[in-house]
Specification:
The protein is 36% helix and 23% strand. The chain is an alpha+beta fold. It has one domain: Creatinase/methionine aminopeptidase superfamily (Creatine Amidinohydrolase). The strands form two sheets. Strands 4, 5, 6 and 7 form a four-stranded antiparallel sheet that branches. It has a three-stranded antiparallel sheet with strand order 1-2-3. Helix 2 packs across helix 3 and helix 4 packs antiparallel against helix 5. This is (Fe-S)-binding protein. It holds the Pfam family Peptidase_M24.
Length: 224
């Protein structure tokens, strides 16, 4: 890919601000944790989605830029494009994740994390592993300046070594001042250069080897 083509995939608008990208990241992750703190066993995915929208409105968001996703139990194996199961209820010893795409001050936040209700040790380990793997891939980006495909090869190798299975369909994406979609950047996992700071979301989704549940973590790749 030419330098011009690569540069086009990291284009930003006239209003772009790295500080506002960081603010959007922080506010979105704050919302993820606020919502998770109010999720309870017995709640359906639809009820959790409605709760999430209420929390975001109370926090003063500009708008939602991608659909609210809340996955319970086996639905944590689903990829982004699959619909929620509105009647799926969270169990007493269960796992769930929240994925939000929200605009704050004209900039796109995208954050997701996995949580566990109860004390199932394997589910707790799965949730922790998704975050740990995200951190390891970010460190690899920081220190080795790897391009997108190499980052996800590293993620797959590390997931396997940790005893989990990486979902290869989840490969990260661009964010920017709203809307990033005009830049046609494709997936981070296909981006043939080291991603610049504040422009890409690193997504990690793993599953237990038995394929009964999974975990998800995503955040903005930023150098400071």
């Amino acid at each position: 890919m030419s330098e011009i083509a690569l540069a086009a995939k990291e284009a930003v608008g006239a209003s772009f601000s790295l500080d506002k990208m960081k603010l959007a990241r922080d506010r979105t992750m704050e919302a993820v944790h606020r919502i998770a703190g109010r999720v309870r066993p017995g709640m359906t995915e639809l009820q959790a989605k409605e709760l999430a929208r209420t929390v975001l409105e109370d926090m003063g968001m500009d708008r939602i830029w991608h659909g609210i996703l809340v996955r319970f139990g086996r639905s944590t194996l689903k990829i982004f494009s699959e619909k929620i199961d509105p009647d799926n209820r969270l169990g007493e010893d269960d796992i769930f994740f929240i994925d939000l795409g929200v605009v704050w001050e004209g900039h796109e936040g995208d954050a997701g994390a996995t949580f566990v209700v109860g004390q199932d040790p394997r589910k707790l380990a799965c949730a922790a592993a998704a975050r740990q793997l995200w951190d390891e891939v970010r460190e690899k980006w920081l220190h080795d300046n790897l391009a997108g495909p190499a980052l996800y090869r590293f993620a797959e190798e590390r997931a396997s070594a940790m005893g989990w299975v990486l979902n290869p369909e989840i490969r990260g994406h661009r964010v920017s001042d709203f809307p990033h979609a005009i830049y046609k950047a494709g997936n981070l996992g296909d981006f043939a250069d080291c991603p610049d700071t504040g422009l890409w979301i690193l997504e990690i989704q793993i599953a237990d080897p038995a394929g009964e549940y999974g975990a998800f973590y995503e955040d903005l790749l930023v150098r400071a």
